[in-house]
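Homework help board

Subject: predicted structure for assignment chain

Our instructor gave us this sequence and asked us to write out the predicted structure in token form, then describe one feature. I got the tokens but I'm not sure how to describe them. Can anyone check?
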Amino acid sequence: MIWFNIPSVRGFLLKFGYVYTIRKKRKKVGYDYAAHGCWHKGQVHKIGKVYINLVREVNTVEDVIGHVENSGLCDPFINISYQRFTVANKWIELAKKLSGDELCLYRVQLMERCQS
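My token output:
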């Protein structure tokens, strides 16, 4: 299961059918399910079946800067060229805070959406 608890990132996945995400290195790539909510509280909301593809390991901002506009973290009202570097840095900071230092960039493709 891959979790999308940041509303803008989840929204990007649902709107465009894919999203780039930075996560702790996964043991499993390929088909899985995407969800949001809280497992411990029993509030799991499945988004759908996804295909997870490893793009690359993340060591520097340059490793992700070309994928910022497909992360769901950009402000749609600001030109991407003005925010690309700032968003890339914040994206890596957030991923490190949530997942530690061994990070990878993944492309998650929504294959089949769950019925609400």
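Reply (TA_rk): Your tokens look well-formed. For the description, you could write something like this. The longest helix spans residues 80-99. That's the kind of observation they're looking for.
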